[in-house]
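Show me any protein, keeping tokens residue-aligned.
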Amino acid sequence: MKLETRDLVQGYGSSIILDGVSVSVSSGEIVALLGPNGSGKSTMIKTICDILPPKSGTVELDGTDIRTYDSSELAKIISYVPQSSNAAVYTTVMDTVLLGRRPYVSWTYRPEDIQIAASAMERMNVDHLSDHNVSELSGGQRQRVFLARSLAQNPDFFIFDEPTSALDLKFQMKTMISMREIIKESGSGMMIALHDINLALNYTDKVVMIKDAKIRASGPPSTTITKQTIRDVYGVETEIIETGSGRYILPI
């Protein structure tokens, strides 16, 4: 299964944020969107999730425009986690995660739905908070709850907008490791906007680097994230450090 944009043009008013952009994510693949603030990462993600209609171009699932799907069908295919959310903050963690099962529920939650939600909470290490109100949690804990809700949704594609931005170093790594395991186990796909280039370098299969409404580089992280592309996209000089555990970017 493939989710892709074709010649996507998107913007606000007369301002063009994305100009003729084509990207794709396939089953079993993690694709990172990289670029400076305002480069269009979040705009692309909202368009892919059918939150914003494109000015021109299409978003397609295996060649079919996603706008032909109704909202309940699309919710079984695509799960979206924004940078931050105030949704459901006055409910318990369990009730919030159970919302991920809504596309599959006719009248009431089944035991199977509750078990899926419980497993998702355990995977995101928030199971011990199940009875807590979401509004009582820290920003990082809250973000992990919304990630658990996304897991409970059991979609074909996870679309995440900087989901690790509120997490501490430990949970950034644990989240990326867990999501990589889930993608490989389930055969789902993930597109994720990231600010941390090192996370993209070590935990994704493909990166798309965006600047000034255009794709500047795209391909495997090891060959696409270079000193030259970082200089071109971010205007920063770097060194790339090779270690026994991976490659890392060091700003100069």
Q: What stands out?
A: Residues 164 and 171 are 8 Å apart (CA to CA). The domain at 2-84+155-251 is CATH 3.40.50.300 (Rossmann fold). The longest strand covers residues 2-12.
